Amino acid sequence: LLFLNQLQKDLEEVKDLLTKATRKRLRDVLMTEKHKLELEIKNQPPPKPKDVAEEEKSSLVGYTVKINNYGWDQSEKFIKIYISLNGVQKLPAENVQVNFTERSFDLLVKNLNGKNYTMTFNNLLKPISVEGSSRKIKTDMVLVMCRKKREEKWECLTQVEKESKEKEKAAYDTSDPSEGLMNLLKKMYAEGDDEMKRTINKAWVESREKQSKGDIPMDI
Predict the structure, then answer these.
(1) Where are the domains of the chain?
(2) Kind plus residue range of the DSSP H or E element containing 212
(3) Which SUPFAM superfamilies would you find in this protein's record (predicted)?
(4) pLDDT category, 98, cuts 50, 70, 90?
(5) Which residue has the higher pLDDT, 172 or 194?
(6) Where do the DSSP E strands lie in the chain?
(7) Which stretch of DSSP H or E encloses residue 57?
(8) Topology (CATH level 3) of domain 64-148
(9) Does CATH number 4.10.860.10 belong to domain 1-43?
(10) Using N-to-C axis directions, what is the helix angle for 177-191 and 194-212, rounded to 10°?
(11) Which of 32, 169, 173, 218 is most buried per CB count within 10 Å?
């Protein structure tokens, strides 16, 4: 729920910037970011029933950490996600929980060295079999096994990642150096945090002001 709230706040800020932006290139960057955020929000899993959520929350003791680092691989039948967690093999098996849907999974590791660990993957690139998917606990590692519904190669893990790669490839497919530079700024803006976006936006406004005064005769 907290992650969803952050996504919605980001979307509101992008919409606000769109109302202020007049340059087509900047608007393109903002529209790309807006589309990505809307897609992420759309694919967030529905909230759990209150009683289930409260029961799960009450069973958590200590600080909860969101896992961002992982490795992944694939075989003909499985997508394999490797999550390193020191000492995880010492926990009771029921403390390592993974919930699967056809296009997502979320991992919860409870009370590992006084902390809880969570990881969520939404909008997987292709559907998986809930029944055929599982998790394995290894030494200092959790292995999440997502069973592919179709035995085909995945180029990436999520639909959002695929769209981002396609846009990046199209953006850099240009022979105009100035166009390439602008596309690089677009990429920095799209992938940057709020501070990065404010910095780029400020630089754009200042450049506009200089251009209007005749200080720089260039279109950025």
Answers:
(1) 1-43, 64-148
(2) helix 194-212
(3) Calcyclin-binding protein-like, HSP20-like chaperones
(4) very high
(5) 194
(6) 63-66, 71-74, 78-84, 96-101, 104-112, 115-121, 128-138, 141-148
(7) helix 50-58
(8) Immunoglobulin-like (2.60.40)
(9) yes
(10) 140
(11) 32
